[in-house]
Design brief:
Elements: H1 2-9, H2 20-44, E1 47-53, E2 57-71, E3 74-78, E4 83-88, E5 95-96, E6 101-105, H3 108-131, H4 137-170, H5 175-206, H6 212-236, E7 238-240, E8 245-248, E9 257-258, E10 263-268, E11 273-280, H7 281-284, E12 292-299, E13 302-313, E14 318-321, E15 327-337, E16 349-362, E17 364-366, E18 371-373, E19 376-383, E20 386-397, E21 401-406, E22 413-415, E23 429-432
Parallel strand pairs: 1-23
Antiparallel strand pairs: 1-22, 2-11, 2-16, 3-10, 4-6, 4-9, 5-8, 6-7, 8-10, 11-15, 12-13, 12-16, 13-15, 14-15, 17-21, 18-19, 19-20, 20-21
Helix pairs in contact: 3-6, 4-5
């Protein structure tokens, strides 16, 4: 055992690692060197980023609202007579010709009312005839005889007066006698007039009282007006198409009771289409009749773009409820699609893009490229391959773009993302167009 121990002590010394504290310092120093190398290499490499080369473009500003597709020409058909839908001769999608019968309302009740009015007219005429009585023939004959006798008496007294005047003129009779003859003649004439008035009274007593004729005439006119009204309703119970077209919006069936004025269906002309869009009253002031709009229709194959022109802008706003349940004052705008036969679905909704401002030949940049800088705004530009902050003055803007009035020129290159990591002035830039 002693021999082995001595042998072990005589063995040459082997390599030993530094102590733990020294090893830690060496590792940290190595990491620092690596970081320094990484920083130097990173700074030496250019920063890859998206850039935009500016050239004058046309700027437009507007807003988007929802619109509903309707037929360019359509005629709603309303029920002209209250009653039961007796006959329905068309269905949705049917083609109709002008003058073709669409439906018919039952008129049995109206016919009964018409017959009742005719009976009332006849009854009124009977009442009127009863109001007029013929004078009694015997009374008339008696009165005529009395008139004839009175006429004879007056003639006799007249001849007697002439004789008495001649005698008075010759002095054969006194004045008193002549005056008595005159008085007797006057009485005879008065009696004749009384008998004539008696005959007139007989006829007047047989006549109706004053206003009777007016009363019956007015009653008859009132009944005739009601009769004409019923006849007009009966004639309107059979409704015909006003123009050639197709049928839509029909929801009723035969036998349904239909009130007066209810819309039954609509006849429209196929091929031409309009839009109805309701915009905020504040936006309506910027919409001009004849201006062009873009219509976006969603399809299974993607969005389809159509073109339309503003045909009319309502003169007043109406209250409508927004999708959020808020009350808004909106103005109805009617738009005519310029395509002659677009493939659309009546009643479907589309997006309508209105252009309220258009400016030509302006430098435009994305709004996201701007950032606050020294109480103003600026963009990152690339000059000689390096990044530089460029203060700018902006003008009009829309949802995505802004006009640059000062600070940039045609051909300027700007960096799209101002928040890019590692971006600073003087940094080399590798442009990604």
């Amino acid at each position: 055992m002693a021999l082995e121990k001595s042998k072990f002590k005589l063995t040459p010394k082997t390599f030993k690692l530094p102590k733990f504290k020294h090893r830690k310092l060496i590792i940290m120093g190595g990491l620092a060197v690596l970081v320094l190398i990484y920083v130097v290499v990173s700074n030496a490499q250019p920063l890859s980023t998206g850039v935009v080369t500016l050239h004058p473009q046309n700027f437009s500003k507007g807003f988007t609202e929802e619109g509903e597709i309707i037929a360019a020409q359509e005629w709603p058909i309303f029920n002209p007579v209250e009653g039961k839908l007796q006959t329905l001769k068309v269905q949705n999608g049917d083609t109709v010709k002008k003058g073709q019968v669409l439906f018919e309302i039952g008129t049995s009740d109206l016919n009964y009312q018409l017959e009742a009015l005719k009976a009332q007219v006849q009854s009124l005429e009977g009442q009127r005839l009863q109001s007029y009585k013929s004078p009694n023939a015997a009374q008339v004959a008696q009165q005529n005889l009395m008139i004839q006798q009175a006429e004879k008496d007056a003639q006799i007294e007249e001849l007697n007066l002439k004789r008495m005047k001649a005698l008075y003129d010759s002095g054969s009779i006194s004045l008193v006698q002549y005056e008595e003859a005159q008085s007797t003649f006057d009485k005879a004439k008065n009696i004749l007039e009384q008998q004539k008035y008696g005959l007139q009274l007989i006829y007047e007593q047989s006549e109706a009282s004053q206003g009777t004729e007016m009363y019956y005439n007015n009653q008859k006119n009132a009944l005739q007006a009601q009769t004409d009204q019923l006849i007009d309703k009966i004639s309107k119970a059979k409704v015909v198409a006003l123009q050639d077209g197709l049928v839509k919006d029909l929801t009723l069936k035969e036998g349904n009771l239909v009130p007066l004025g209810q819309q039954i269906l609509t006849v429209f002309v196929s091929g031409g289409y309009k839009l109805e869009s309701y915009v905020l009253a504040s936006d309506a002031l910027d919409i001009k009749v004849g201006s062009t709009v873009q219509v976006i229709q969603a399809t299974s194959a993607g969005n389809k773009s159509l073109t339309g022109k503003v045909e009319a802008v309502a003169v007043s706003a109406i209250e409508r409820i927004s999708p959020l349940g808020l009350k808004e004052n909106r103005v109805k705008v009617t738009i005519l699609l310029t395509e002659s036969s677009p493939v659309v679905v009546l009643g479907s909704n589309v997006d309508v893009k209105y252009t309220t401002l258009e400016v030509l030949d302006k430098l435009l940049i994305p709004k996201t490229a701007l950032f606050p800088y020294q109480q103003g705004e600026a963009v990152w530009v690339v000059e000689q391959g390096k990044a530089k902050i460029q203060p700018v003055k902006k003008g009009q803007e829309n949802d995505n773009q802004v006009i640059i009035e000062q600070g940039l020129t045609d051909g300027s290159i700007i960096i799209e993302d101002p928040n890019l990591t590692g971006l600073k002035e003087g940094k080399r830039i590798k442009s990604i167009l």
